[in-house]
Amino acid sequence: MPEDRDDDDAELFRTAIGPVRRMRETVAPPSAPRPKPRARMAERDEAHARDEFRHALAGSVEPLDAGDALAYRRDDVPPRVLQRLKRGEISVQEELDLHGSDSREAEQLLRAFLHDARQHGVGCVRIIHGKGLHGTASIASGGMPVLKNLVDRLLRQRADILAFHSAPPAQGGTGAVVVLLAPRRPRHS
Question: Is residue 136 a part of any domain in this protein?
Fold first, then answer.
């Protein structure tokens, strides 16, 4: 009997509301995507480093000529490490060629390359910047090699660079630089 009563109630309801028409089925709109998290402090640090770099380009550091060797080591790195880089005794694991890049593109490529190399545990890289003898940008820079000076200044400003030196003659000489990267520290959760 309870089933008969349910049927009666349903019929009574339908009679009370009258004729109905079925609504079209619609798909719910997709929810708005969540914004991706941003490393705001890292972005600020990068912006600050770029500003510092641009100030250095303005003339606070003596620019390098085409034949000048690049050389740098952090104070905590023994001098013999720089000598080993100079002689080509440390094996290069990855290489970046900046030939044909303008300074903005070269800066972006170099930053991305160094970040990627460090993330993958690469310890030593070679960056080919050229000697700056044939570029049109060297005319605007007073004859100074633009990419070579850019690479020199950018590498000096990075905390993850232990040392660098112009490559041995067989590996590009003063048109390339061999860079020793600091090992990546594991993140602790």
Answer: yes
